[in-house]
Every structure is written in structure tokens, then in C-alpha cells.
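Form 7-S
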Amino acid sequence: MQGRKAVSILNGILWDKNITIENKKIIYNSIVKSIITYSSEVWPLKEKTERTRKATEMDFWRRSAGKSRIDKIPSETIRRQMELKHDIEDDIRTQQLIWYGHGQRMEEHRIPKKIFNWNPQGRRKIGRPGRSWREGIDKEVLYRGLEVNGWGDRERWRLGIERRETVITRLYIYGVMF
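Output:
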């Protein structure tokens, strides 16, 4: 919601042809992305909110490219035009893996570590995500080909986390046809 407000406030800047793509990327990373992803390290990712975040991101890039939705240009075309390598969901998953590694490296007696490893029992209430945060992390660890307990070596863990695929590859792997 706040991300949409930021994009609408920046509307005049985004449509300006005199501002370079590089400067628009800096604006995106420093303002819009930081608003959208604030504290996202601990979110269990839901499909509905994922669609909203992607729509907000594409709204920013569409305006930056000087295109409106009326032009009916596919998102992938705009991504290529703006030279984007990753989408916002990939950035969130990367931050979650960094946070996961940090939490796992804590000493066992620390309270944050105990909370981090706690697994509540019983059924989830209505409206709760179908997949927990930890299940999402486990899936992403497998997807990126990381060792399950590889978080002990920080440098190697970081290198593995940065091993990201392109958006098109991710869509293909998850079975989305386009």
C-alpha cells in the first residue's frame, strides 16, 4: 500500500525522459524497494501479497519506461528494456536466506535462537499462510542448491545465496507458462 503511494508521488520523476535509467534504478532501490520490503526477512510469503508487490514493482518500471498499461506491453518486455535481472520476490527471498543464516549461526543458549527454532504445534488458524516461513526457506534452500546446514560458513553461504536464476528461469521451474 505504501509502495503504491510512493510510486504515485514519484510519478512526475518516473515519466521524465531526462532522468536516466540508472538514476531511476537508484530511486527504486533507495525509496520504493525499501518501503515495499521493510522487514520482509520474516514474512511468510503469500501468493496474494506477492502479486500485489509485483504489480507495484511493475507499475514503477512501466512508468519509468514511459509506457502505460493501455499500451499493453508485456512485463517481460519492460524488464528487458529497463535491464532488470531480478524481481522483488527474488530480492525478498535472498534477504530471508541471509536472515536465516544469521539466526542459525547464533549460539544455542540465546533466546532469539530458541524462538527462531521454535515450531508451534497444532493446526493453523483460518487466514494463516498455508506454508510457514520455515517451509518457504527450506524450499528456497533446495531451489538454490544450497547445503541444508551450509549456513555455518558465512562466506560460502553468501556466495550460494547470490546464485540466483533469472525471472524467466524461475517461472519455467515453477511451471508457469508464458
